[in-house]
Write the structure tokens for this entry.
Amino acid sequence: MSSTSTCKSLSITSDIQIRVIKPQERQQVLDFLRIHYYLEEPLTAGSEPKQQDKEDEEFNMSNIEHGTCIMAVLKGDTNVSEQIVGALMAGPKGPHEAEHLFEEAAGLGPTKWGHTLQFLACVERDANICGRFNVEKVLHVHVMGVDSALRGHNIGGRMVEEVLNVAKRLQYEMVSVDCTSVYSAKIFERMGFKCINIKYYKEYIDETGKQVFKPEAPHECVKTFALKL
Ligand code: ACO
């Protein structure tokens, strides 16, 4: 890398601020995630139809009201305008999360989001975070997306640091995440989270024996991580 591009990338990352998403920023965050998250997230991109369901978007956006969703913004020259370059959506879960997910999945039936929730319910049941660690108030990270032009600059890592600060402030006992991507898994490994469970996509098949989620390489499993606060 040339010294010019190193300086440029350093100034980009130092101009990025990390903060909690406000309710009035819902639409901008959703527009950002439609481009920089849904098109590549392994469960979404690895199943048909490729387009995410409205219920999926609504669920993720509903987490904003908890004050536990984080964004990364790049400040413009005037410091007034800002551009979203990352978003992390997290919300509370408790001991009955797996049952809730199974119920919701059953209610949705054979839709894309219904299949996804059914899979996430199995992941939640197997990881059993609340039962395993005897905790009741867990903050779960559902979504993480970084501007595709700015990946590999630890923007994802900085958003995770901030969600940990928020979780401590709001007296959560743990933070957990189901990493559907090898790249998000690297972040949580690096930040000292414990890997609790691994579920391989090739082992999750429907009643006809077909693999339900077929993400492109290198994504081959969901890794569940947790950190006690
Ligand atoms: N291609 C190759 N490597 C990549 C890419 C990429 N597109 N993106 C990130 N990486 C690598 C980085 O080099 C780094 O590896 P290293 O630790 O060996 O150096 C690691 O992934 C993490 O990089 P960071 O800079 O800490 O994270 P980043 O700011 O790039 O954000 C993220 C990572 C959010 C996963 C990003 O890749 C992304 O938005 N992906 C698309 C959406 C998605 O799949 N999100 C994750 C699923 S949701 C979830 O798991 C909760």
User: Anything to note?
Assistant: Residues 112-127 form the longest helix (16 residues). The mean pLDDT is 94. The two ends are 38 Å apart (CA to CA). Residues 36-37, 40-41, 141, 143-146, 151-157, 177, 179-181, 183-184, 186-187, 190 surround acetyl coenzyme *A (CB under 6 Å).
